[in-house]
Amino acid sequence: MRRRMVLSTVILIVLLANLVNAQPVMMRQYREIGLPRFDVNAISLLSDQPERTRVIAYIELPYENLQFVRSSRGYEANYEVDMSILAGPTDSSPRVENKIWRSTVIVPTFEETNSRELFDISETTIILDPANYTMIATVTDLETRKQFQVSRTLMVPSYDLGGLSMGDLLLAREVVKTPSGAFEIVPNVDRVIAGEDEELYVYYEVYPTVSDTMHVHSRVLDRNGSLVFEQRRTVDVEKPVTRDYFEIPTAKLGVGSHVVEMQVRTEDFSTLKAAEFQVRLTGLPSTVQNMETAIRQLRYVARNREVERMLNASSHERQILFHDFWKKMDPSPDTPPNELMEEYYNRIHEASAAFGGMRDGWETDRGEVYVRYGPPDEVERHPFEVDSRPYEIWYYYDGQKRFVFVDELGYGEYRLVSNLWQ
After folding, report:
1. Residue 49 is part of a domain; what is its CATH number?
2. In angstroms, rounded to a whole number, what is the distance separating the alpha carbons of residues 258 and 221?
3. Angle at CA of residue 135, ends 132 and 137, nearest 5°
4. Are 49 and 161 in contact (CB under 8 A)?
């Protein structure tokens, strides 16, 4: 059952009083826009099969999303992954490949079973023809039988060995090159780092057929396209595959979206690859990428003077005030995550994804109701009425509330026409 949180701007303590169970949401578009319960990603590399490509798919599952049970080995959790590759953009497209595997996680202490910082990573290798696919991963907790599913578009390139080509960039939390020349890698599956204390590496493979050296130009750009890191190196070539890695100094990165680009050149050939990643604020939900924006988004739970005080403070003091605000509202201060803050910003994120248009989705009337009350129990939609503008009616059974929204201007932004608090 989804937990419902009602948010009030008048009495902040109501944030805790209204964390109650809600009925299932009947509109799929409002239920499924949240963040996934696990992360999945894949990279394409050269295969030893001619004209085919090797794809490594990774699953990263936080311990907190697994059900652990006491065993003779400590605390144990088991899950199963069903990975399907479809030859098209929809769930009904033909299946070209399917892999199923199981993983066991064992930890010594109960505290680790609820950790958001610890996670299990599993992987599978699939050989595919170059094409565009849909990758669907379903994770089943074998104790509770709960299932979570994530879908991704998978673009599989062809690697022409006629001169110079490069595999996809693999972002990693740790890379170690052993004395034997093998690489031990802990991938960063969600491509998110939290703060300057977290390490970030880039592993890459180059497939040269000529030349004995290659020139590697690496750089990182922020979301505005500004250069924040650059490195140039000359690397000795190993044929048919040159494997290497480098570290990105995270202390130089600001919060938000970034792109790492790599250009490899020999005397006659050149190739380029890129990968996106996110830097988020330490101790905050991954959806919060800008402190000033996060403070402005407090308007549904904070008084105007509190918001203004934070915005007018210095950068350091602003973060202190922000964390102090949410610390007072933390329903379980003895545990690292602030569940209330994460629920609030997840709703902000979901509202922005669902209702955005001329304004950010969280600022619209539907967005405000969604943030305050959560997903509606039922949505009655009337998009094509003869004698009226398109409108929606949202029902919340617990509080016996009903909200009517009308698209008065015909631009898709529905305005609230019923009293917000009735």
Report:
1. 2.60.40
2. 6
3. 175
4. no
> What sign has the CA pseudo-torsion 222, 157, 35, 102?
negative
Mean pLDDT of 43-70: 94
Q: What residues have CB less than 8 Å from 40, skipping those under 6 apart?
A: 57, 58, 59, 60, 135, 137, 150, 152, 189
Amino acid at 224: N
Does residue 58 lie within any of the structural domains?
no
Percent of the chain with pLDDT over 70: 89
Report how far residue 249's alpha carbon sits from residue 175's, in angstroms, rounded to the nearest whole number.
14
Scored b (16 or more CB within 10 A) or e, 271-285 reads bebebebbbbbeebb
pLDDT in tens, 263-306: 999 988 999 999 999 888 777 777 787 888 999 999 999 999 99
Residue 420 pLDDT: 52
Within 10 Å of residue 369's Cβ, how many Cβ atoms?
21
Distance, in Å, from the CA atom of 294 to the CA atom of 362, rounded to the nearest integer, reads: 12
Entry pTM: 0.71
Average pLDDT value for residue range 309-338: 86
Range of the domain at 245: 160-284
Q: pLDDT grade, residue 419 (50/70/90)?
A: low
> Is the same domain home to 338 and 349?
yes
User: What's the rounded Cα separation, in Å, for the pair 304 and 291?
Assistant: 17
The token pair at 224 is 């505005």
Residue 12 pLDDT more than 60? Answer: no
The side-by-side arrangement of strands in the sheet containing 391-396 is: 378-382, 391-396, 401-406, 415-416
Compute the distance between CA of residue 141 and CA of residue 133 in angstroms, rounded to an integer: 26
**Phi-psi domain of 225 (left: phi exceeds 0; alpha: psi -120 through 50; beta: other):** left
Residues 51 and 160: their CA atoms lie apart, in Å, by 8
Convert the pLDDT of each residue in 76-116 to its tens digit.
Answer: 999 999 999 999 888 889 999 999 999 999 999 998 998 87
Q: What is the Cα–Cα distance from 90 to 97, expressed in whole angstroms?
A: 15
Judgement on whether residues 234 and 334 belong to the same structural domain of the protein: no
Q: Is 265 helix (H, G, I), strand (E, B) or coil?
A: strand
Query: Distance between CA atoms of 135 and 126, rounded to whole angstroms?
Result: 11
